[in-house]
Amino acid sequence: MRLLALALGLGTAAAQAGSFLVMSFKGEEVPYELLRRVRPSGVILYPSNLRRDPVDLVRRLKAFDPQLVVMLDQEGGPFTTYREGVVRFPSAMALSASGDEGLVERVGWALGCQVRRLGADVNLAPVLDVNLNPQNPIIGLRSFGADPERVARMGLAFARGILRSGAKPVGKHFPGHGDTATDSHLDLPRVDKPREALEQAELLPFRRYVAAGMPALMTAHILFPALDPVLPATLSERVLTGLLRKEMGFQGAILTDDMAMGAIKKNFGAGEAAFLAVKAGADLLLVEPDERALLEVHARLARALGQEIGRERAEAARRRALALLAHKGDCPFTPKEEEALALEAARRGVVHLFGSLPLPGPGTLVLGLRISDRYGAEPTLADLAPTHLPGSQGFNLSENPTLEEVDRAAYLAMGAERVVLSTYRWLGGFKEGQKALFKRLAETGKPLYVVALGNPDDLRLLPGRPQGYLATHGHRAVQVRAALEALAGKYTPRGQWVFGGVP
């Protein structure tokens, strides 16, 4: 065992404690001193790390330690860490709406290749959560849908694509974040369902993922009383060791979600939560970009090693981390091929619920929303309308339109033949300004068509029924373009409704 520890670069408890850590940091400078002090198994990157020269940043990290596992969230859709200068792909729900596992695999492959071109090893995807709760405040269109079988099929296809690139996939968030009404970034969600119901829905995609021999899973900071009445999954030995390791037979790496999220930090504290997670069976802990918290976690684990936690657990964690280093893959995509694939996926993910298509461009007023998106600004429906719906007029409003904006839009609508209105809801509730805008436009008597650019079920929240309704499952530029092309009759949208009960 001692020889193994030396071979893996381990020695003292302090050195071994870093085996459990995936650290993060602020800015674009490599924190060399902190890396030397902690010796983590990995680093997770965020958009703020990748603004200037992301490839060089990863090169410097790898030069410091070639065995440092570099991770990022390249899900597509709203969670896209590496986004400057790369093609932005549609969300998982848009991919699933195509009904085509081959397409899903190709997109997973392309996103894995983005990870590899950056020089990183791990794509923290696919999302295997079954989006059973339409009010889910954090999953929604990140999920492959509300049907467990479909989520399992599409999630595995996406993971296979990532593996083709040489990167490693991570299924998340075990045992399932899809039926929550609380965002675990803010507080501790609770899912009160019997074990049988969990098996039929939440656990099914994860069981299929494990059976396929996939390399890693990420835990959910959620309390499942049917599995453990006291501790959330991330900290539960019953869930991570009893269910996942022993019952399901998972052999890969168990990563935690960010240990700084409110569900954990508010209820347990950084150091003690880290100890509980490792004791429960977690291999790698994602730690916030806060030096004090990182050192607190590191010190607590160092104290525990050899006492409350056996040294062999650190050795196993290091082995599983090393298994996540990227392997030689195949990345044949040119930028033009990626763009074409993203547009194909966007078009095939558009759902046309009702209304006559195509619309004649002349006389059409297209109202866009300037969506506040910390994951990356995109052109609006109004911005792209002149190009993809020729003859139309575009006008932009804020995401939560003011009374003055509503008045202006209604005035413009009076001079139009018809109106195309974009709506958006993903995080948080449906904006009151959007409801007021719809109501005011409906009162003009002009034919009103709605394009839902976030979660696809805005129809059930509108104060009335429009003449036509499209859902894109996201507001990436290719999805905005795909909606306008559908309105213009360039293609016939055939996307399938996968969100749950049709509104």
Q: Explain this structure to me?
A:
The protein has 503 residues and is α/β, with parallel strands linked by helices. It folds into two domains: 12-322, Glycoside hydrolase, family 3, N-terminal domain (TIM Barrel); 350-488, Glycoside hydrolase family 3 C-terminal domain (Rossmann fold, 3-Layer(aba) Sandwich), CATH 3.40.50. It is built from 19 helices and 17 strands. The chain has helices spanning 2-7, 13-17, 32-38, 54-64, 92-97, 101-118, 148-165, 195-200, 203-211, 237-247, 262-268, 270-280, 291-304, 311-322, 335-348, 381-388, 403-414, 432-443, 477-488; strands at 21-23, 42-44, 69-72, 74-76, 79-80, 122-123, 168-169, 171-174, 216-219, 253-255, 285-286, 351-354, 364-370, 393-398, 418-423, 448-452, 468-471. The strands form four sheets. The chain has a six-stranded parallel β-sheet. Helix 6 (101-118) runs antiparallel to helix 15 (335-348) and helix 16 (381-388) crosses helix 19 (477-488). The N and C termini lie far apart (59 Å). Mean pLDDT is 94; it is low at 1-10.
Distance between the termini: 59 Å
| Percentage of residues in strands | 5-15%
Indicate the CATH class of the largest domain.
Answer: Alpha Beta
Largest sheet: 6 strands, parallel
Mean pLDDT: 94
CATH architecture call of the largest domain = Alpha-Beta Barrel
The CATH homologous superfamily of the largest domain is called: Glycoside hydrolase, family 3, N-terminal domain
Total discrete domains: 2
Report the strand count: 17
Broad shape = elongated
CATH topology of the largest domain: TIM Barrel
Q: How many separate helices?
A: 19
Regions with little confidence, pLDDT below 50 for 5+ residues: 1-10
